[in-house]
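A brief tutorial aside. Many learners find it easier to grasp structure tokens once they have seen a single protein encoded end to end. The record that follows does exactly this for Glycosyl hydrolase family 32. Read the sequence first, then the structure, and try to relate runs of similar tokens to stretches of the chain.
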Amino acid sequence: MRRIGTLWTVAALLGAALPAAAATGAGQVGATPFVQIYDPSEQSPWYINDHTFVQDAQGTWHLFGITHTEPAAPDDEDTFAHATAPSLNGPWTKRAPALSVDPAYGETHLWAPHVIRNGSTYYMFYAGGGADPARHAINLATSTDLYTWTRNPGGPLFRDGAVARDPYVVRVGDQWVMYYTATSEPSGGNHVVAVRTSVDLVHWSDRSVAFADPTTGSGGGDTESPFVVNVDGAWYLFVGPRGGYVGTDVFRSPDPFHFSVDQLAGHVFSHAAEVINADGRWWISHAGWGQRGVWLAGLDFGNGSQQYAVEASSDPSDRVVIVSGFDGRQEVFAGGPDQVWGRYQTTRNGQWSDWFPFGGPKSATLSAARDVDGRLELFASGEGRVDRRAQSAPNTWDDWANFGTAAHDMTVAQNADGRLEIFASGSVGIFHRWQTAPGGTWAEWEAFGGPADSVIATGRDANGRIEVMAAAGSTVYRRRQAVASGGWAGFDQFGSVSGVKHLALNRRPDGALELVAGGSAGTSRRTQSGPSGEWTGWTAFGGPPSARVHIGRNADGRMEVFAAGDFVTQHRWENGSGWSAWENFGSGASGWGFGTNADGRIEIVAGTGSLAGRYQVAPSGGWSTWTPVGGPTVD
């Protein structure tokens, strides 16, 4: 509900100057899957809600945030949690509470801390409440060591309504700027992001409005947790919750004091998102009621800034599939002759468990996805049906359930609003099912059109719209959403590739989609000219004939294409000046699973018969040799 806190490198933002003529970016803002980094629970479950991160002069990270036992009790949130870690990703150590409510100071609760450093002093801005919701207090406490805090002796910095809260302070040019959530009138009205300026962090100007939403009310609303950063000359406002409790909209503007609803630039599945630039990478956090602590994900501004691939595309089904769990550990599933088998990483980026029987149909082809709440869903097509097995909670699996008739090919995509959608081709065309709410129940199968017994691939463009590519014979077809998460335009022919065997689709760092087809004469390629832009025509791309193809994205943003033919697998990659030549990568395989470790390294499990694995030894780096990994025999 309220703000998660501040995730940024202080030095990077203190010197940010207001550009005379700011540019605007092009791509859609998105994020990688979130990884849990801190859970404050001990004997009973606790939550961290709005929180802030700051790094001290010695390099230690500090986390401060709203905290309380579950279930949520916002009016009883009367202390700020404190934890420390050697790095942003942890491990985090719980410390004594940093601050407790002081009724003598007029505080009725402690919400939404935000900490910055100015010189040798740390400033904590927070919402202290008050008896009158039309005059809620924004308060200040200071510290020199981040452990002992002293309230501003002059009392609250100012009061505003309705239920003003969620302060965020950043340096813009020669002044400090505070953004916070409020309403257009003290007692209610439109939900707004208010803004004030200061030269000393204590005395603040009258307010103006940086963003106004059409929605109205006397509190709550969807302009909470405002966070503003400058990237490549454009200003980005993160605000939520929008589209559900776990949802943040991103708006892009050339002016840090004026944002509008028609400047939507992306959506991230996080609650009260805040942003950090650390170690040369952009990150975004997530927390809240019922969220089991604090989570972190790589952030992509659609301009190549993100080093980790955003999950915007899905591979068609295969006998082997890799999917990342809620805590960043990868899981592998393989369709064996007797049932599905699985294994998982015992630590992030680390070793693997033994294989274990997982049930399901024999000799199945598989597809997998992760819900917005971290739960995995696995689909298996075999023995004349599609079965589904889903987690009821992260790492806790329910039983298999019949999900429909068998599919020639299938893939699972994720809508911009977080809902999963599965596409499956059969003898009369393509059908699809979708979640009626993010992480929720599934609608029934519905005819989608397109060619019978086709191979299919999906991706999400820079505007958040799913694109479905389907091919049968030598003809490729395309259908896409008219609006993100909305209705569909009709199918169009999308050119010809002789003897199409397979399709792969992924999104480039700038937001443009890339499409590769495996045909009888080798691979062919089409790409968008820019984010959500026009498509080029088909061009020959080389590689083995009649190959299954996969498009990977390295941690540094360079694309890499893999093509597995009957007798050989090859790959080629962007090398800074174009594409490399094709290089042998192994023997042919009938089952391929591609995953990305939490540190950005690509990992592969593949084989015909016995399975073997290969992984990058460093993010965007060279590859290990193939090593047998055991498991079932894959046809």
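Self-check: The first helix runs from residue 10 to 14. If you spotted this yourself, you are ready for the next section.
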